[in-house]
Each structure stands twice: as C-alpha cells, then as structure tokens.
Amino acid sequence: MLVVLGRFYEDFQIGEVLETPGRTITEADLVNFAGVSGDFYSLHVDEEYAKKTMFGRRIAHGLLTLAVVSGFWSKMGLFEGTLVAFYGIDRLRFTKPVYVGDTVRARIEVVGKEERGRHGLITLRHEVYNQRGEIVMVFDAKLLFKRKSERSAP
C-alpha cells in the first residue's frame, strides 16, 4: 500500500510561498557529482585552472545546485505519494557561482496551476540564494501532481 504524505494538486495555492532549509555544498558533493555525471570539467575539479578564470577558484556544477534544490522538495515532503512526474524546467539561469562551502536555500512560489485531466500541473518559481542573500539560480519547475479524486491511483 502506497503511503501518501505529499501534497495534492488542490493543496497548492497561487501566490503561496515556501522556504526551504539551507544546505552547505561540500567538497564531497562536488567530487561525487563529477563522478556520477561524468562532468570533470576543469572549472570544477582543477584548482590551478580555476584560479585563472573569472571565478578565481573552482565552482560547483550548476546542475549540482539544481539537484540539491530538487532534494529540498523531497525533504519538505511536497510529493511523497502524490507526484506523478517531473514535467520540466523553464527559464533556468545560473546568475552567480556557487563555491564549495556556500550554503544554498530556496524561496519557492506557486505561480501556476493547470488541470490536466486526472492530474494537475503546478509551476513553482524558484529563487535560490547563497548565505549572503545573493540569488545564484532562478528557474520555474513544472511538476505533475495527483488530484484528490485520484488518491488511490498509482
């Protein structure tokens, strides 16, 4: 039996704002992400190379930061048993670098709701901040959720 802990389509309200906890990006995060993704680009893994770039040191992969934010959704219990699919991302921008040792958190606003038959599509606008309050990434995530009338559907 599937245990439903997450939110249904109807539970989201346009204009609602959610704040995530913070998470510090570690050296292990960077190395593990490079290993899993195969992205060993010098800007992420070669300190001497990175020193000569506009960043002055290694930066975390943008997609690592995105993956951390998607982990916030799970940690916040938004979709356990109610998420049907991760539908897509719109307007993704990496606005500032994230370094090892930075702590990121996100402000998430519900900006769209669209009924899709048995399901509902929710658009969540994300502003991701570092510990200095600087926006490091913005994007709109589109997630397909179960509707309350479909509680028992897989």
Description:
The chain has 154 residues and is an alpha+beta fold. It has a single domain (9-150), classed as Hotdog Thioesterase (Thiol Ester Dehydrase, Chain A), CATH 3.10.129.10. Helices cover 22% and strands 35% of the residues. It is built from 4 helices and 6 strands. Strands 1, 2, 3, 4, 5 and 6 form a 6-stranded antiparallel β-sheet that branches. The model has no long low-confidence stretch (mean pLDDT 94).
Task: Please give the count of helices.
Answer: 4
Record field, number of beta strands: 6
CATH class, anyone? Alpha Beta
- Classified in CATH, the superfamily is Hotdog Thioesterase
CATH topology: Thiol Ester Dehydrase, Chain A
Order of helices and strands: EEHHHHEEEE
Low-confidence stretches: none
Shape: elongated
| Helix content, binned percent | 10-25%
| Rg over C-alpha atoms, rounded to the nearest angstrom | 17 Å
How do the helices and strands line up, and which of them pair or pack?
Elements: E1 17-19, E2 23-24, H1 27-37, H2 42-45, H3 47-51, H4 62-75, E3 83-94, E4 103-116, E5 119-129, E6 135-146
Antiparallel strand pairs: 1-4, 2-4, 3-6, 4-5, 5-6
